[in-house]
């Protein structure tokens, strides 16, 4: 494909996009579609997911730490207290906390994000040891199939 053909293709796409935008602005809305749309969704902006807010706060606390500090993230589930070393975020509604319990067993807690209560505390690193950093794992976005 030559540069001229690429330019024509891009110009046609821009023209079609502009034409559709103008036509959409001029057209009267379909009454059946506007009646089906809930009125309150347009009035309220999108609310960030609770899981994203929790992860953002943990990362914001951990980011500025010095080499002699660590962020102790703990999670209580019933009688279990978990020192979190890794958080997996399969989606914005579910969080998976992994770490070690009081007896040294590797433990995972799978919880709805809006029910999660974590305790984050900046602490000095014990002498002679390396700081523990909480690792946050998020799924990689899957490429969309070409149409």
Helix content: 25-40%
Based on CA atoms alone, the radius of gyration comes out at 25 Å
Q: Indicate the proportion of strand residues.
A: 25-35%
Could you spell the SSE succession in H and E letters? Answer: HHHHEEEEEE
Give the tally of β-strands.
Answer: 6
Cα separation of the termini: 20 Å
The chain-level structural class is alpha+beta
Arithmetic mean pLDDT = 79
Main beta sheet: 6 strands, mixed
Outline the low-pLDDT stretches. Answer: none
The coarse overall form would be: elongated
Alpha plus pi helix count: 4
Commentary on this structure:
- With 147 residues, this protein is of the alpha+beta class.
- It has helices at residues 3-26, 31-36, 39-43, 50-62; strands spanning 69-77, 80-91, 94-100, 106-112, 118-124, 135-137.
- Strands 1, 2, 3, 4, 5 and 6 form a six-stranded mixed sheet that branches.
- The radius of gyration is 25 Å and the shape is elongated.
- The mean pLDDT is 79.
List keywords for this structure.
6 strands; 31% strand; alpha+beta; 147 residues; six-stranded mixed β-sheet; 2 domains; 33% helix; 4 helices
At a glance:
The protein is α+β, with helices and mostly antiparallel strands and 147 residues long. The protein is built from four helices and six strands, in the order ααααββββββ.
